[in-house]
Design goal:
Blueprint (H helix, E strand, L loop, with lengths): L1 E6 L4 H11 L5 E4 L1 H7 L2 H9 L4 E8 L3 H10 L4 E5 L4 H14 L2 E5 L6 H9 L5 E5 L2 H5 L5 H10 L4 E5 L7 H6 L4 E4 L1 H4 L4 H14 L1
Keywords: Carbohydrate metabolism, Lyase, One-carbon metabolism
EC number: 4.1.2.43
Catalytic activity: D-ribulose 5-phosphate + formaldehyde = D-arabino-hex-3-ulose 6-phosphate
Length: about 210
């Protein structure tokens, strides 16, 4: 099980400061969609250059032109790129094909997928590396979480690794770990903490035990 730090509400200098604090305790640093919108793929490049031992995920939430967008993110140094599960199969396939050429990985974000089970099976058959269940900001405001969806994809997915994101905090982490995803994605649970390093260290410890 790995720990991914999601950075959403920062600029590049702030991102570097946060990652510096928690780098020993995380496996992957995610350059969130808002950061990419505000800063461009330069944010991916600068974080990768500064922290070469960490994997960097570019949360592009690709919906079209899968091959091209994966190529551009790969050039910027991304190790993992996200595509939306509601995309057309050809978009996901294009992303996977390009990722294979570039020796990168594809994560499919299942946000807003209506039939999680059947779509996860289809996506798994397209050869993606991760399938992520995700309660977005707007879902979290409605009190939703992704534990049930995680159990669903764990049951049906045969090849891809599973990931969970959305509102995970230190106190809810044991419940997440008990569901046994391959990857736990935490944003505000670390970035909003007074002592980010201490929280990240505790989370890593729990995950490694899990």
């Amino acid at each position: 099980m790995e720990l991914q730090l999601a950075l959403d509400l920062v600029n590049i200098p702030e991102a570097k400061e946060v990652v510096k604090e928690v780098a020993p305790y995380i496996d992957i640093v995610e350059i969130g969609t808002p950061v990419v919108i505000n800063e461009g793929l330069r944010a991916v490049k600068e974080i990768k250059d500064e922290f070469p031992s960490l994997k960097v995920l570019a949360d592009l939430k690709i919906m079209d032109a899968g091959g091209y967008e994966v190529m551009k993110a790969s050039e910027a140094g991304a190790d993992i790129i996200t595509v939306l599960g509601v995309s057309d199969d050809s978009t996901i396939k294009g992303a996977v094909d390009e990722a294979r050429k570039q020796n990168k990985k594809i994560m499919v974000d299942m946000i807003n997928v209506k039939d999680i089970a059947s779509r996860a099976v289809e996506i798994d058959n397209l050869g993606v590396d991760y399938i992520c269940v995700h309660s977005g900001y707007d879902h979290q405001a409605d009190g939703k979480n992704s534990f049930e969806d995680l159990a669903t994809i764990k049951r049906v997915v045969k090849q891809a690794k599973t990931a969970i994101a959305g509102g995970i905090k230190l106190q809810t982490l044991p419940e997440v770990i008990s569901a046994q995803p391959d990857l736990v994605i935490v944003g505000g649970g670390i970035t909003g903490a007074g002592d980010k390093q201490a929280v990240a260290a505790q989370m890593q410890q729990l995950i490694k035990q899990g």
